[in-house]
Amino acid sequence: MKQLVFLLVLFAAIAIAPFVIESDFWLNAVIMTLYAALLGQSWNILGGYGGQFSFGHAAFFGTGAYTIAVLQVNFGINPWIGLVFGGALGALVATIIGALVFRYGLRGSYFALVTLAFAEVLRILSNTVDFTGAGVGILIPLDRTIANLQFETKAGFFWLIWALALAVFLVVWWLGHSRFGARLMAVRDNEEAARALGVDAFRVKLGAMALSGLFTGLAGCFYAQYFLYLDPGIAYGPAVSVESLLVPIIGGMGTLFGPLLGAIALTGVAELSREFFGDAQGISLVLYGLLLVLMVLFMPRGLAGLGRLSARRLLARGAPS
Amino acid sequence: MPDLAIIVPSFLNGLTTGALYALIALGLTLIYGVLHIINFAHGSLLMLALYGVYYLRVSLGIDPYIALVILPPAMFALGYVLQRFVIGRASHGRDENILLVTLGLSIVIENLALYFFKSDTRIIETPYSFDTVEIFGAFLPYPKVVAFVGAFVTAAALWYVIARTDLGRAIRALAKERKGARLVGIDVDHIFAMSFGIGIACLGVAACLLLPSYYVSPQVGHGFVLIAFTIVVLGGMGSFVGALIGGLIIGVVEALGGLFLGESLGQIGIFAIFILILLFRPTGLLGHSA
Q1: What share of residues in chain A are helix, strand, coil (percent, to 5)?
Q2: Residue B37: closest CA among chain A residues belongs to which residue?
Q3: A with B: how many residue pairs have Cβ under 8 Å apart?
Q4: What is the pTM of this model?
Q5: Fewer CB within 10 Å: N-end or C-end of chain A?
């Protein structure tokens, strides 16, 4: 309960941002942080709480992004409806992949490889077929009205990503306090033992996969509406897959607030690298990769683990010896 | 339906490409067989080796085939150091951590290459680049024939090391039983690093054989790494013969698939094989049951 109160207070505090921040630069930084938090928390549902390390979350992200874009560009369907479909299709793709992969009992490295391969297949397909604009990409026409899920000011986009991020954080809070979440973590910690106790591991993992796919798809929808351009490399390329796993790994996997810490750290790194190296090709990704290696080497519990460790040390010091 | 005059050269071309794929996959399967890790950095290390061959040729005028005495030892040293001081220390008892570290390494290497070498595609010119050899009435590029022979010579040498030397015995012992190997006095960290180094040295050989008939760019590893994964799962993770046969099969499938379906759908064919095998027979065609 304490966690939930803290979560709500935190998001209420974040909600002040559009009223006090006047520069578009900083509001954009807040938006990108919330966006990274949404992406990372979605991965965290499956990877952190479910123990299934996906290397191909771009498969769900790209599906959400292309759904909202193709529906409005090719079929004239309102993007608010597209948003619903984007999330749903992200969940659907995740469920299909999950059903195949878990049916045959693939875990660990095999799971990572298959998800990666699915994302690559979708990337090649979207590069080949016509309705996604193939290699040229797809451009969403600029029309800044709320009815069109585009906003006059950055503040509008802020509210959209704020609401999406709050939703995924609430879901993850629920994971920590529900039977479903308990089953999911039991499967993560010891699948055989969980099954022996009557947990339907297949359904539990599939549920986590669908939730993860749903919110990753929504993140894709947000990306499409915010940047108004997609191509196969952006939508299904490895950068998104890496970003979504990097956020919780930096922040702390399997924790509620880890992805938020990770998102702040990662957005900070991205901005700093732009400051120091300009838009030099690849440098921010070099830093991402370095961070990944260093975190796994020296801080496998992430920033959240660091906080817990120092809290424990403080407590230990305060305790009478 | 294209007639035999097209199919035969295409088939032979596929075999020569497949032999190189096999060589790359051999390194991957050796690392998997011994360390039980999937090396995601395999493709980017191959890319690094290709740049090595390129700059040896362009800056120092060293022929790629002469570079065979320089590059594989250099790649071996790099692999040894990476495993001993970075990858080996990252596990903290969980295989997922190793997976993440090799993924991180591949991102770092690839994007550093992008920063320093830019995304240009580069080729080298050698006096024999356009020579051909006639086999069964088909004219094959000379570098590809050399690559085919070289891949098999390397595979044979690798087999000899694994099967007949003390190092090979230690590697095999470690692959089977870590604790037991440690108990009989094998230096586990050293042998792990040796295995990783040998796997990466294979990439050095592959790079020298590949570049005369291929190109290099920072993303060049991408194409190879998933093909190598496919071969390794096709042949069975850790299976030596499996990697060789798997490599040849994939080479031929790719060449004929490209011929009949066009380039980009031919690519999907490989992924389709990959996913189907992972789903239905993750131990591979020749692998043992898990």
Answers
A1: 80, 0, 20
A2: A109
A3: 116
A4: 0.85
A5: C
